[in-house]
Amino acid sequence: MAKRKLVIIGNGMAGAKLLEDLLLRHATRRYSIEVYGEESVPAYNRVLLGRVLAGEDGDAIRFEPSVQDVSDVQFHRGLRVDQIDTMARQLHTSDGQKHPYDLAVISTGSRAFIPRMEGLMTSEGSLKVGVYAYRTLDDAMSIRSAARAGGNAIVLGGGLLGLEGAKVLADSGMHVTVVHLAGHLMERQLDPQAGETLKQRIMDMGLFVRCGRTISRIHGDSSIQGVTLDDGTFLPAEMLVIACGIRPRIDLAQQSGIPVNRGIIVNDTLATAIPGIYAIGECAEHAGQVYGMVQPIFEQCSVLADILSGEKPTSRYRGSRLYARLKIAGVEVASMGVLEPELPDDEVIQITENRKKHYRKLIVRHDRLIGAMFVGDPTGAAAAIQAFDRGEPLPTNRLELLCEPSSSTRKTDRDVCNCKQVRLSVIRQAIQNGCDSVESIAACTGAGTGCGSCRSEISRILNDTQLASVGR
Amino acid sequence: MTGTRPRVFPEVRSHCPYCAFQCGMTLSVGSDGLPEAKADPSFPVNNGQMCIKGFTSGQLLQRSDRLHHPLKKNVSGSFVKVSWDQALDEISERIINIQRTNGPDSIACFGSGALTNEKAYLLGKFARVALRTRMIDYNGRYCMSSAAAGQNRSFGIDRGLPFPVADIAGAKTVMLWGSNLADTLPPIMQYFERMREAGGRIIVVDPRLTPTARQADLHLQLTPGSDVILANGLLHLAIEMKRIDQTYIRSRTVGFEQVRSAVSRYTPDRVERVCGIGIDKLRQAVIWLSEERSMLLSGRGPEQQIKGVDGVCAMINLMLAMGHVGKPFSGYGTLTGQGNGQGGREHGQKSDQLPGYRSIENLNDRQEIARFWGIPETELPRKGLSAVEMLRSLGQQIRGLLVFGSNVAVATPDSGHVESGLQALDLLVVADSFLNETSQYADFVLPVTQWAEEEGTMTNLEGRVIHRRPLVEPPEGVRTDWWILCELAKRLGRSEQFNFLDVKDIFEELANATRGGPADYSGIDYDKIDRNDGVFWPCPSKDHPGTPRLFADRFFHEDGLARFVPVEHRPAGEMPDQTYPLYLTTGRYKEQYNSGAQTRKVVSLRSARPMPCAQVHPRLAERLGLEEGEPAIVRTRRAAAEFIVQITTDIRPDTIFIPFHYGGKEAVNQLTNPVLDPVSRMPEYKICAARIEPKPTEPDLLEDSDYGQA
After folding, report:
1. CATH code for the structural domain at A131-244
2. Side-chain half-sphere of A307: how many Cα atoms within 13 Å?
3. Could you report how far apart the first and last alpha carbons of chain A are, in Å?
4. Distance between CA atoms of residues B317 and B154, nearest Å
5. Where would I find the H helices in B129-203?
6. Is B17 an 8 Å CB contact of chain A?
7. In a 10 Å sphere around its CB, with 0-12 CB exposed, 13-18 middle and 19+ buried, how is residue A251 labelled?
8. Residues B12-62, CATH architecture
9. Closest by Cα among A281, A48, A18, A278 to A161
10. pLDDT band at B699 (very low <50, low <70, confident <90, very high)
11. pLDDT (tens digit, 9 = 90+) per residue, B353-404?
């Protein structure tokens, strides 16, 4: 049987991961696979952009498939797909060529969203010098080389990416102001109180935060010199980093007559309404959701690879549960699920520790965790995300979820005598009950009657315990 | 006891019959005439410490249920005593008949990590030369096969610990991964106590708050089966926190780039989510582990999984990237379990191995050993089935099975299936000192010596070859395993290759057979062992002092470099779902050993742990209505079994723990999943999906108790 041709359009994270998942499932037995990548550079792991911003080599975050043998796969790098002729089943590429296909997967990803601002562009129509959209590897490299100690930077957007970038810039010695449109930081992951707590913590690190504000004007001719906020405040700046989220790249799909909404509309099999065309990643919209995080993308890739490889054709994508974790050392933020109760019966458990700037909140429905957020103190976040993912019933005392047995109580009890397995607590009890020598402890508990090597330790415990009682 | 009392030697220095720590013990017969085992203060591994199993081991020599005659099962299904000649004649006749009809591979041998090096060597030779069967494997497959395969991939050699155990005392950080050694190797704790006194710290990775984890400075209580995610995630963090050693990576390893790329997807939030461990703890672990003098020691936790080999490689990757392997008081090691779990995996009782850790599929190795044994290379069988696969084809492809030193009916996953296989055989021969769960199905049971009645060598968890010395002569009617193998070989027409004067004679042949192999014993002899309290292999010549520390200068791949091996997480063979919503994991009690065939016979051990309990978290117990001390039914896709409930916060609320030392209806391996690691063929003892419910009370009993309370 002749192999069918499977094309992957877009060689970003989603495209590269799908390829890997297909190869792991031996899909090359069924398909000859071709990958079209507009960028000439190999895919990279965007989650790790912060590392490049902080000075690491771009190569360090290259996304290499774990399947090393890609000899069966044909790569077209630096070649853009302009249109998919879904009737003739042909791709039209930027070099004027036409390429036949049997199945096509669109993974064109997203682009940075740049809000309208007066003075954003130069007269030639490019972003002013010093203005960056923080989105790609190239962006991270340019921002890094422009960062100067003692300089002034504005970061527009107080979400995950914006805050992480702002922290790196502050660490490089810049005066950094985060300008955020919503009333509080990370409003998609945090409630107002959590956002306020986070703001305090960010400000404690030497950054400035202005919420509920946006930039109305960018000053400077060819280079940025400052910005005016919508309340009229002027802030001098040589750098503006825009981190206002993403917009799915759907032009190709639109031009090819594939139904789109905010993203390319796919069902639980990641298929579009046009037979033979699939979409994954940040360009895809599933059940009204466009995802901008890595985990959902990986889950989509795995499902589509299951189906197309024939390894598990009944595999379905049912949407992803999101878990946001801010990656700034010293500012722990974790968030999952809903931010506020939605039904009258939903329970809310909130713990506010003002002086410590800790805030924790659980939202519970029918004994199940449907949302949680942690700022400052992440204790319990690991247990919460597992309870959230699995939909397990919570402990009757919800606070148990937030507690971990303290390590000090763990360490106190242990076997002192390995031969006769006598615990420290048992020896202490014996001393309290009146044993006042190693011999009497041995007679009473058996400790030290095996090899005897623990007798010196028993004697030390005896001394310590007696000293402690004298001290009392 | 029957017969006259055998001759007794004066006090001897020997070693414990149980685990791979092989404590030095002095054996003597006390004034009351009973054998007594004391810890040997002069043996440099245990330094006079020993655990309760060792102290009580003398009782095994005094059991009244000891076998003294070969037993043959008669037509009515009961055992009758027969002479050795009759037993051996009939067994060999039946072997010949079965092989004539069904081919040489229809007879299989099953060995053990409890056998001495001499027995392990001879069993491998017996299978290949006398039986000419491909079918030989051993219970070390259940134990060390993943660690062995992983170390071979990464280092080009497999010795459990590449350094003496005493080096632990000099470490600053030791990470114990899936090892509860406070219970399983108690005397090793002396080294941890010393390191702690010098300011060292312990990190324990375990889904349970074990007695070992209680002593930890940091406990990473991971979700069962998430070990690869954790190891890759720690390396991801180490890279992010700039705590890797670039100089070491450049000079001593290859393949880092691929691993760096592979772990780039194991972000801290993903690790936290899947493993259930907070990112702060992950960071702490990386900081401690990346400092100098760090060790990572793994136990069966990460290894007894279908991704056991990958797990081992992931842990080694971490230690290589931090530059620890081969430096003083640093590196990676695996804690071998069975008494001769190390030597047992070197001398050819594993299906793919030839003596000296040679490969049965490598032409050079085959030619060398075939020449040594005096047979044409073409006559040397090739690799056969691994333990679980072999035991699952009993009665089909395999018609006859000879078992030495293993209780397969208890130790094998989905043991119910194995028991039916044992019953379907045309011939089952079991060599053991006592009757056990396996021998009940045997056609012949051959009584063999116990450790204090025989001589031989063992190789402990450090790779130190040590001398097992006899206290007493075997009781009347009892023979050693090697004598049985030689006698059978003669009856199978191979007498010239099985002509040994004594056990030293076998050792000499073994040592010569290993010459030039990775596990080279050729420079070792009994005197050298005695003079030095053991000799570390490789020891390639008579004047070679042995090799306590591997890797200081080079690894054992041809270029001398260690390999980074990129590995990815895979889900367990069976994950919790709606029907079986919990993880079931298995492990050990301090007071019992392996299948319990020995320790359940020692009164004080039996009374300390009379039965296996199912450990559950109070939260799970409350939800399901489980009561402490009450019976519950644990179900998996293989079987259902009844266990007494033990409620403890030491276990995760999503996991049930049951120890595996018990047989029959108490055997947890009825429930476990027989899926295998694709490389090591290790079964997945540590994870399967299960559910648990209170045992339904019988109505009339309930009424009775109601009356009783009224």
Report:
1. 3.50.50.60
2. 19
3. 87
4. 8
5. 145-155, 181-184, 189-197
6. no
7. middle
8. Single Sheet (2.20)
9. A48
10. low
11. 999 999 999 999 999 999 999 999 999 999 999 999 999 999 999 999 999 9
Give the distance, in angstroms, between the CA of residue A129 and the centroid of all CA atoms in the same chain: 30
B186 and A415 in contact by Cβ < 8 A?
yes
CATH architecture of the region B145-334: 3-Layer(aba) Sandwich (3.40)
pLDDT digits (tens, 9 = 90+) for A202-241: 999 999 999 999 999 999 999 999 999 999 999 999 999 9
Q: Which chain A residues have a beta carbon less than 8 Å from that of B214? A: 410-411, 413-414
Same CATH fold, A131-244 and A4-111+247-309? yes
A234 C-beta neighbours (distance < 10 Å), count: 12
CA-closest candidate to residue B587, choices B509, B669, B710: B669
Q: Flag whether residue A446 sits within 8 Å of chain B, measured between CB atoms.
A: no
Hey, how many other C-beta atoms are within 10 angstroms of the C-beta on B241? Answer: 13
| CB crowding A162-186: b at 16 or more within 10 Å, else e | bbbbbbbbbbbebbbbbbbbbebbb
Provide the 10 A C-beta neighbour count for residue B377. Answer: 13
Residue B599 DSSP class: G
CB B520 within 8 A of CB B539: yes
Interface predicted TM-score (ipTM) of this complex, two decimals: 0.85
The two three-digit tokens of residue B52, written as one number: 């309760």
Domain covering B71-143+340-536, topology = Rossmann fold (3.40.50)
Residue B142 is classified by DSSP as G
* Best to test chain A binding among B239, B240, B617, B691 (most A CBs inside 10 Å): B240
When CB atoms are compared, the residue of B267, B278, B654 closest to A378 is B278
What six digits make up the tokens of B357?
Answer: 């850790």
Contact B494, B375 (CB under 8 A): no
Which candidate from B39, B214, B223 shows the least CB-CB separation from A411?
Answer: B214
Whether the CB of A33 is below 8 Å from some CB of chain B: the reply is: no
Q: Could you say which residues from 623 to 642 on chain B have a Cβ atom under 8 Å away from some Cβ of chain A?
A: 623
CA B544 to chain CA mean position, Å: 29
B100 touches chain A (CB under 8 A): no
Nearest CA to CA, how far is B242 from chain A (Å)? 10
Contact B398, B106 (CB under 8 A): yes
The secondary element (H helix, E strand) that includes residue B19 is: none
Q: Reply yes or no on domain A332-404 having CATH 3.40.50.300.
A: no
Number of other residues whose CB lies within 10 A of the CB of residue B565: 20
Rounded to two decimals, the pTM is 0.90
Mean pLDDT of chain B: 93
- Residue among B182, B268, B568 minimizing CB distance to A66: B568
Determine the topology of domain A413-471 in CATH.
Arc Repressor Mutant, subunit A (1.10.10)
Distance from CA of B275 to the nearest CA of A (A): 8
Beta-sheet strand order (sheet of A239-242): A131-133, A239-242, A152-156, A175-180, A208-211
pLDDT digits (tens, 9 = 90+) for A10-45: 988 899 899 989 998 999 999 999 999 887 677 777
Cβ pair B404, B676 in contact under 8 A: no
A68 confidence band (pLDDT: 50, 70, 90): low
3-state SS, B44-72, equals: CCCCCCCCHHHHCHHHHHHCCCCCCCCEE
Instruction: Give the side-chain half-sphere CA count within 13 A for B146.
Output: 32
CATH class of domain segment(s) A4-111+247-309: alpha beta
Q: B582-709 architecture in CATH?
A: Beta Barrel (2.40)
Predicted confidence band of residue B710 (pLDDT cuts 50, 70, 90): very low
Predicted confidence (pLDDT) per residue in A238-264, tens digit:
999 999 998 999 999 999 999 999 999
Domain ranges (residues) in chain B = 12-62, 71-143+340-536, 145-334, 582-709
Length of chain A: 472
